[in-house]
Design goal:
The protein has 16 helices and no strands. By secondary structure, it is mostly helical. The radius of gyration is 23 Å and the shape is elongated. It has two domains: 118 residues, Leucine-rich Repeat Variant (Alpha Horseshoe); 86 residues, no CATH class. InterPro entries: ARM-like, ARM-type_fold, PP2A_Regulatory_Subunit_A. Keywords: Repeat. This is PP4R1 phosphatase. One of its GO terms (cellular component) is cytoplasm. It comes from Cettia cetti.
Length: 268
């Protein structure tokens, strides 16, 4: 609260955010704050310069990425303009370890920045991480629920179409990726309507129940049972009836014993 009251100074920022052609003086002012010594912040920002990182220490960008949420929390969301360019530079760093570090903390940064800044500045970075290497994607997947719950309902629904993509990995033997997806889907049931669950999450759950790895299947059985519970409590009863019928047809009457066993485990 005290930070909010101290920082109506130097510039009226409405123009700064829309004008991309800053003069050097304006660029410098856009990174001015009075929470910590300015020289300290300038030193931190300078360490993310790619040329410096390559000549001084190849790990320095990763350390900067690790510290960034803490710096953002210290400065407060009203000073995010000081860090925005640095964050985008790190998010596009050539080293996947740097991007991975940011992917694991983007949900924490979203809490610090609030919904408006998250929608404008973090969602594009988040979308980029979703299409990255598996080493980076796992960072956003592990905290998918934590990030999506901070978005508005309409923006959150857009990600329903992309959840299916998590079933595809660079290495098909990466079963922990699919296990993590099942864990996150259990949490995501609370964020979506009965129709969305039936239309989008149900097909993924059935696919995971037939996974080759038993650890993935066990988590998926819990996912399906939670899905039944969620749809049963919904105002529209047709979804749960359709789901139960599909479970009977797909697993209970399966010609393979493993499919019939799956039905028993889900009932259990």
């Amino acid at each position: 609260q005290s930070m909010d009251s101290t920082l109506h100074y130097i510039h009226n920022d409405s123009d700064l955010s829309t004008n991309s052609s800053f003069s050097p003086e304006e660029e410098r002012k856009s990174k001015v704050q009075d929470v910590v010594p300015q020289a300290l912040l300038d030193q931190y920002l300078s360490m993310t310069d790619p040329s410096r990182a390559q000549t001084v220490d190849t790990e320095i960008a990763k350390h900067c990425a690790y510290s960034l949420p803490g710096v953002a929390l210290t400065l407060g969301r009203q000073n995010w303009h000081c860090l925005k360019d640095t964050y985008e530079t790190l998010a596009s760093d050539m080293q996947w370890k740097v991007r991975r570090t940011l992917a694991f903390s983007i949900h924490e940064l979203a809490v610090i920045l609030g919904d408006q800044l998250t929608a404008g500045d973090l969602v594009p970075v988040f979308n980029g991480f979703l299409k990255d290497l598996d080493e980076v994607r796992i960072g956003v997947l592990k905290h998918l629920h934590d990030f999506l719950k901070l978005l508005h309902v309409d923006k959150r629904r857009e990600y329903l179409y992309q959840l299916q993509e998590f079933l595809v990995t660079d290495n098909s033997r990466n079963w922990r990726f699919r296990a993590e997806l099942a864990e996150q889907l259990i949490l995501l049931l609370d964020l979506y309507s009965a129709r969305d669950i039936y239309d989008y999450l149900r097909p993924i759950a059935f696919s995971l129940c037939a996974d080759k790895v038993s650890s993935v299947r066990w988590i998926s059985y819990k996912l399906v049972s939670e899905m039944v519970k969620k749809l049963y409590m919904a105002s529209t009863s047709t979804f749960v009836v359709d789901l139960m019928n599909e479970l009977v047809e797909t697993f209970c009457r399966c010609h393979k014993w493993s499919g019939r066993q799956t039905f028993v485990f889900i009932c259990q």
